[in-house]
Amino acid sequence: MPEIIPGSYLRITPWGAWCAIENRGDEPARRALLAILREPESPLLTITAACLWTGEDDEHAALLHLYALQQAGCIEALDRPARVPAEALEQLLPPLLEQIGSEKRAVLADALGFRVASSTWPEADADAIAAMSAEMLTVAERHERALAALGKPGASGWGMVDPVGVGAFGLWPLHVGPVRLALALTGRPRLNQPAFADMIWALCVRYAGEMSVMK
Q1: How far is residue 49's CA from residue 87's CA, in Å, rounded to a whole number?
Q2: Which SUPFAM superfamilies match (predicted)?
């Protein structure tokens, strides 16, 4: 992996995409991840950009945040920029959703219970899952502090499990800046796939206007 140095183009990895949207924190590292994800093309790293992304006035501190993100596997450097796929979300999301669960059945819902996109589920079932997902988002937000005390970093999903703990269904709240979404899928999650990073990138570009309110 190339070093994160000025003159590199930065892309968010699947793990970095997860770290960007798993909670509503406003620490410099998460600000940097979301700022990079808002760009439709892999941005060029400059000292000025690093300070802007992290909110740090000190150039060294800003670069240290980016170096830490690289060491954690959240970002990677490219010799040339990549671009978010140009298709509308309606066409782009379903094939990406198919790739992030072992059974290829997934639903992405908004906080009002409307289906943003789905894959392979019949529409009526997908709409019912979307409505349920919105209710789960509300519960998760209402009891955020208690749930944080019970869990561990990265453990923000909800699951339907059998008596030995094997999951058949999972739901993960996604915080795309101030926009709350829910990802529901059956089978084993595969959020470590490039398709997950591409989905989060496309969503961040789509909601860039709402995310700019965070600045």
Answers
A1: 27
A2: Roadblock/LC7 domain
The predicted pLDDT at position 25 comes to 80
Residue-wise pLDDT for 146-181, tens only, equals 666 666 655 677 877 777 666 788 899 999 988 999
As a whole number of angstroms, the distance between CA 137 and CA 21 comes to 14
Q: Where are the beta strands (DSSP E) in the chain?
A: 9-12, 75-78, 106-110, 115-119, 158-161, 167-176, 179-186
Beta bridge partners of 192: none
Global pTM reads 0.89
**How large is the angle between the packed helices 47-54 and 59-71, nearest 10 degrees?**
80
Q: What DSSP element (H or E) covers 143?
A: none
Cα distance between residue 16 and residue 66, in whole Å: 11
Task: Name the residue among 91, 101, 137 with its Cα closest to residue 121.
Answer: 101
CB neighbours of 47 closer than 8 A, spacing ≥ 6?
Answer: 6, 59, 62, 63
Which residues does the chain have with pLDDT short of 70? 1-5, 146-155, 164-166, 209-215
